[in-house]
């Protein structure tokens, strides 16, 4: 990828072409999809560059960070699949690499003989702590947007995700008696 900016926005040009070809009703949707996909590429490149010295992919980082957030440092594989919204095969591959590298242990579930737990090792806890510090410093604290724009974007994308069936609003909790 070139480091210098292009003289025009290729996504705006693509939208213009959609309109010129009579695809008016699809032009905004095409612009949304291609814009979000390009933004994902840009952000992932920054994340990958930050995680490279730690020999972590973002998928491996997410699993380690999720485990580190738990009280016990362990979680059933099925719960990790649900929380990270990944395919079980992808998690299985990620878990195998974490175990191979000594960052996690795969253990039998204490109450369900069919299930397995993934547990963070001390090395995994240390690595994810250092990687989180780097991501916070190099990526998350400066995503390339103002705080207001970041908040607006998160809200907009949350609506898109909710409308796609990604999650539901939590049920209201009754007031205590």
Automatic annotation (TrEMBL):
Residues in HTH marR-type domain copies: 29-162
Origin: domain of life: Bacteria
One matching Pfam family: MarR_2
InterPro entries: HTH_MarR-typ (IPR000835), MarR/SlyA-like (IPR039422), WH-like_DNA-bd_sf (IPR036388), WH_DNA-bd_sf (IPR036390)
MF term (GO), any: DNA-binding transcription factor activity
Gene Ontology biological process: response to stress
PANTHER family named among the record's database cross-references: TRANSCRIPTIONAL REGULATOR, MARR FAMILY, TRANSCRIPTIONAL REPRESSOR MPRA
Name the record gives this protein: MarR family transcriptional regulator
């Amino acid at each position: 990828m070139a480091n210098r900016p292009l003289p025009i926005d290729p996504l705006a040009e693509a939208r213009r072409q959609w309109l010129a070809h009579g695809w008016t009703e699809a032009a905004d949707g095409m612009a949304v999809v291609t814009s979000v996909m390009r933004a994902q590429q840009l952000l992932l490149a920054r994340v990958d560059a930050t995680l490279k010295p730690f020999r972590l992919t973002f998928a491996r980082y997410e699993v380690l960070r999720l485990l580190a957030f738990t009280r016990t440092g362990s979680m059933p594989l099925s719960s990790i699949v649900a929380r990270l919204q990944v395919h079980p095969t992808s998690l299985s591959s990620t878990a195998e690499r974490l175990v191979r590298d000594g960052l996690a242990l795969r253990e039998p579930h204490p109450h369900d003989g069919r299930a397995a737990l993934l547990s963070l090792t001390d090395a995994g806890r240390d690595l994810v702590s250092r990687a989180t510090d780097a991501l916070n410093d190099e990526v998350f604290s400066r995503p390339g947007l103002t705080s207001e724009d970041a908040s607006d974007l998160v809200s907009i994308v949350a609506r898109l995700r909710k409308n796609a069936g990604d999650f539901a609003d939590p049920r209201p909790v009754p007031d205590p008696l």
